């Protein structure tokens, strides 16, 4: 059952992104920035958490999930460290993802060359 | 002057009519199935590592993101991800694998400009804005939460 909900929630988030790209002049970069920011805001308002509870990876794998982790992290940071947590909480919660993106991204870019189309 | 603006309007109208309309339903269907499928794979990885490595729910979520980023970066290097992306549109851009793709793709493309200005700088063409707005908005949220608490 968790697979079905992951499929539906993840698919629908992507459809929203597709509609944004097709109906407006927004480029993928705009959509990604909007989605991350939206993920942060919706999590802060308590709207994204139910979506994560329902969709699991369907809500955490799309980019709003990155915003979700950032927002959840910063709130945890403030709860544990007070004001200092405002600056450390977000990255602390997403450190693994960011490091993986930098290291694996660099590694693959060095190892492979673009395929001629 | 008036005529010019009128012509301009007519021209814009013409451009609007002639430029191809996106196939909304087709694009959305592709986005839904590819995005849903990637999420489902993510759920499978999540459930697997949670069970096999005895991780907590949060740890399993983080481990899943690591693995998905690795797979997205690898498939981009192999040239497979961009082939999926041609059809899938947002279905391949919005998942975290697309984030990895947005890092590897320009980095690979600009390798000839060197490992600093080429690879390392271009890695963040798209990831940079995402990090800037994501982190900044999270700090704002944290600040508001701190003040309200």
UniProtKB/TrEMBL annotation, chain A:
Q: Which domain of life is it from?
A: Bacteria
Q: Does the keyword Repeat apply?
A: no
Query: What InterPro entries is this protein classified in?
Result: Spore_V_AE, SpoVA
Q: Name one Pfam family in it.
A: SpoVAC_SpoVAEB
Any idea which UniProt keywords this protein has?
Answer: Membrane, Transmembrane, Transmembrane helix
User: Is this entry keyworded Ligase?
Assistant: no
Transmembrane stretches in the record are 6-22, 29-48, 83-112
NCBIfam families from the xrefs? spore_V_AE
Give the protein's recorded name.
Stage V sporulation protein AE
Q: Which organism is it from?
A: Alkaliphilus serpentinus
Q: Which gene encodes it?
A: spoVAE
UniProtKB/TrEMBL annotation, chain B:
The answer, when asked if Transmembrane helix is one of the entry's keywords, is yes
Q: Does the keyword Methyltransferase apply?
A: no
- A Pfam family of the record is SpoVAC_SpoVAEB
Which InterPro entries does the annotation name? Spore_V_AC, SpoVA
Q: Which ranges does the record mark as transmembrane?
A: 24-45, 65-81, 88-108, 128-148
List the NCBIfam families hit by this protein, alphabetically. spore_V_AC (TIGR02838)
Under what name is this protein listed?
Stage V sporulation protein AC
Q: Tell me what organism the protein belongs to.
A: Alkaliphilus serpentinus
Q: What is the lineage of its organism?
A: Bacteria, Bacillati, Bacillota, Clostridia, Peptostreptococcales
In the UniProt record, what gene is named as encoding this protein?
spoVAC
